[in-house]
Amino acid sequence: MINKLTLMVGMLVLITLQGCVMPRTPFKAEQIKTDEAVVYLYRPESFISRGLHFSAIINDNKTVTPLINNAYIPIHVKAGAFKLKLQKNGFPKSTLDTITYDNLEAGKAYYLKAKPGLFGAYTLVKMSDTEGLAEISSTSYYQPQ
Known about the structure:
- There is one protein chain.
- By secondary structure, the chain is α+β, with helices and mostly antiparallel strands.
- The chain has helices at 2-20, 129-136; strands at 24-26, 36-43, 54-58, 62-67, 71-78, 80-88, 94-104, 109-116, 122-127, 140-142.
- The chain has a six-stranded mixed β-sheet with strand order 1-10-5-2-8-9. Strands 4-3-6-7 form a four-stranded antiparallel β-sheet, with no helix packed on it.
- A hairpin with a 5-residue loop joins strand 6 and strand 7 (94-104).
- Residues 12-20 have low confidence and may be disordered.
């Protein structure tokens, strides 16, 4: 009886975990249109708040989700002013940090790191091209299904 119970629990765990497997691809630079910029929002590998998913609120009107652990999201925006709010998904939704750019240049890539902190806090950090590209290269793009 115990062996059957163990087998059933094991199969249930495998079925559950199968749903957690997410299609991911290594970092690949995006094609940027001449009138837009791309902001790469990334979250490095971290044990802190590992299971939480975040959303990015763009200019207070567009939501991009999910930003998971060790992943990135490419965000294509028109050149000019840009505001991004990092929000924790779930209940209650809460804003973790907000960052603005005064003037994104057309045709340029920007790197924005969601840096983990204590007690589930996250800070958005503008990264240089060199540092951002080096760090984001170890993350993957998660394609929601």
